[in-house]
Amino acid sequence: MPRMPRRRRGALALALPLFLLLGACASDAPQDTLDPKGPIARQIDDLVNPVFLVAAVVFVIVEFGTLAMVLKFRKRRGEDDDDLPAQTHGNTKLEIGWTVLPAAILAVVAVGTIGTLININSRDDAAMTVRVEGQQWWWRYSYDVDGDGRFEDEEPSTGTDLVIPAGVDVELEIHSNDVIHSFWIPSLNGKKDAVPGRTHTLTLNADEPGTYVGQCTEFCGLSHAYMRQRAVALPQDEFDDWLANQATEAEEPEEGTEAALGAELFTTQCSRCHVARGINDEEWADEGDKTLVAGEAPELTHFATRGAFAGGTYNLWEDLDGDDIVEYDEIGGELNRIDLEAWLRNPPGQKPMAPEARGMPNLQLQEEQIDQLVAFLQTLD
Ligand code: CUA
Fold first, then answer.
1. Can you list the pairs that 45-51 forms with residues at least 24 positions away whose Cβ atoms lie under 8 Å?
2. Residues 137 and 180 in one domain
3. Whose CA, among 111, 213, 338, 342, lies 20 to 30 Å from 192?
4. Do 100 and 225 reside in the same domain of the chain?
5. What is the pLDDT of residue 154?
6. 220 lines ligand 1 (CB under 6 A)
7. Are the C-beta atoms of residues 139 and 162 closer than 8 Å to each other?
């Protein structure tokens, strides 16, 4: 192979870091870890920034020092190969210096790190607790409406959308129903693994109402990349209304309508995995066919109050302001009918769900049935 000309090699060597640098400059990056939107994430940020600064200064000194030495003591033209530079051995002052200084720097960093860890992990005045379950490939959030400390079947749960009140600590009790997943909303806190058989806690706190996105950060199988999260923070009164609504049963659609046909179809075709309280909970109770590895599918009682479906793979409503995130005020606006219909037509074709018996199967629905189901799903608000 001919060698690349020197100049081109130089250009390539410069281009690679430049591309990496440019990659870090995206402005519309909602999963930016360096853009905290709550007090807990801010504490982490307040630790990361000075540590990064110290590390950067050390990096520059060491790298430029090394380069300077190499240049200064390089072999010069006319010097004999056998000419050795003056040999020295040992410099007590220098050696003590470069042992003590890094130790001191690390000690300072350790104090800050441990202090931050203790602070963000000992927040025991949480306003509420939500149970989080990761499974292939979506997140379930269960709410303890009656406040008895238990998450019962009759109490509501959502998929993908974690709705919380803004400005207060919300404690998450994180579980997994199958393999290891990892929960992470970068703008609200660090990440926490969801491990089968264990309960991990994590606290979220959002300064302002808004929608904060994240995604599973532990490789958990084929559709790991389609296991997304949305934390929807609402003002306390709106959150109370939201929770009160979630606790209600779904209303049966008016007889003779397309939605009523959809409800019937839902009861016969979807009850194996999905429940909509008030519609098919009788069929569902105790009859759940446990062929799904991780248990049943998302509860759909108030499906239409969510911003996304299929583990956050698709927006359920149109993103009207074009910022790629469906905010709370866009929910209930314009239905993303195309993706919803495509999903019902062939779910495994939309989101890889192998090996078999994970996720939603293709039910071979007719177009007419898909229309009926969509009409029914829209009534679940
Ligand atoms: Cu769940 Cu990756």
1. 46/116, 47/112, 47/113, 47/116, 50/112, 51/109, 51/112, 51/113
2. yes
3. 111
4. yes
5. 82
6. yes
7. yes
Would strands 228-234 and 210-215 be described as parallel, antiparallel, or unpaired?
A: antiparallel
CA separation for the pair 311, 140 (Å, rounded): 9
For residue 287, the 8-state DSSP code is: T
Whether the ω angle into residue 355 lies within 30 degrees of 0, i.e. cis, is yes
Assess whether pLDDT exceeds 50 at residue 291: no
Task: Please name the residue whose Cα sits nearest to atom 1 of ligand 1.
Answer: 181
38 with 183, same domain: the answer is yes
Is residue 136 assigned to a domain? yes
Ligand 1, atom nearest to 219 Cα: 2
> Are residues 137 and 35 part of one domain?
yes
Is the same domain home to 207 and 264? no
Residue-range definition of the domain harbouring residue 48? 31-58+94-235
Q: What is the pTM of this model?
A: 0.86
Q: Does the Cβ of 204 fall within 6 Å of ligand 1?
A: no
Torsion of CA 146, 152, 155, 157, to 10 degrees: 130
